[in-house]
Amino acid sequence: MTSSPDLWPAPRAVHPVDAVVTLPGSKSITNRALILAAIADGPSVVRRALRSRDTSLMAAALTSLGSTVDTSGDDWVVTPGAFDRDAVVDCGLAGTVMRFVPPIAGLGTSLVSFDGDEHMRQRPIGQVLSALRDLGVSIQGDALPFTVHGAGSVPGGTVVVDASASSQFVSALLLAGARYDAGVDVRHDGKPVPSLPHIDMTIAMLREHGVEVDDADANRWRVAPGPVKAVDHLIEPDLSNAAPFLALAAVSGGSVTVRDWPHATTQAGDALRGILTEMGCTVELDDDGLRVTGSGALQGIDVDLHDVGELTPAIAALCALAESPSHLRGIGHIRGHETDRLAALATELGALGADVTEHADGLSLRPAPLHGGVFHTYADHRMAHAAVIVGAAVDGIQVENVGTTAKTFPDFAGFWSGLLSP
Ligand SMILES: O=C(O)C1=C[C@@H](OP(=O)(O)O)[C@@H](O)[C@H](O)C1
Ligand SMILES: C=C(OP(=O)(O)O)C(=O)O
Question: Where is each Enolpyruvate transferase domain found (predicted)?
Fold first, then answer.
């Protein structure tokens, strides 16, 4: 007997959608807050923490190292503990767990081994491991699975990394750096670092924890040695996960408001304001939140997404539905995300009739009529977001493994259906 494929019929937006939504917290902020809390000088509270696969894996990793993480309520309480027990860390498909936990595991006195989902073994990590070795951490292995041998302290100092594959390589070293004997002086040598807002997020959060960071020079970041203060942190809504909801306003010619949109933020998703304006939407930020109103017609866009690559799947879906051509550039690094997103988007959008060309570092899309079919997600939450956006506009889209959205959004499919039910 063959098992039935996990297909979910994406609901169509048959009327303009008019909705006000409260979205779950940011994955990137929650996981940084958890890491910093685990190496802080006292208990911290992570308020309105995102409860999702990536953040649960982070909480579990920190617990296995020796911290106490109380996730029973909406506000998670983290009490640091000695990292003195041997542990096995499951990274799942979470880049933040695979890259941010090893540098703090080096501070402990135990053996900590890391593994994850099958595809996680393909995602880049070698530069973090070699940088940690240069900083004095003993590690067995050059890719997943690997083991960190904690020696009770890390000398730290100057290190050179090529962070062109992921900004998380830099964030990982900076997050732990204050607890290294000499701090860290991290220099990047290579093609431009992607996703720079995420490094700004790391720096801003370190400073909130009382850590001194010097980022005055391009491609160089210095973290002074010293204590990490415990803080009470309120997590912003996840602005990257807002993409499909704002896109729904765009494709249905309706209006969607995301509550609590911060007026100042380091989140990459804030770039959606400019991108959706350029695609023909009306975008207003006020005390109610961020409201996007679709005009009923979408314009294509020529844009460099190097800084905000994680928005690509949702933007590409919109481009496939636009009336004029688009070119998405500067995003070769997203081939190392949850899947090779450029190949996956070209394949899946192309299979539905889109006129799409895959380039080494981007995608071009030209207007073409789309039709129904199965949209494969490759276990990538943002591929599922692309699928439901197309499905809102095109009859007969079936999303394979929509449950993969649990990586960063609990019950995404239920929430999405609720907005589209008649
Ligand atoms: O530090 C972070 O929280 C993230 C950094 C970015 O990674 P890359 O620099 O690998 O693109 C981003 O795409 C990812 O979703 C989250
Ligand atoms: C690239 C992403 O995730 P990760 O944190 O696993 O790198 C993403 O969420 O788009």
Answer: 13-413
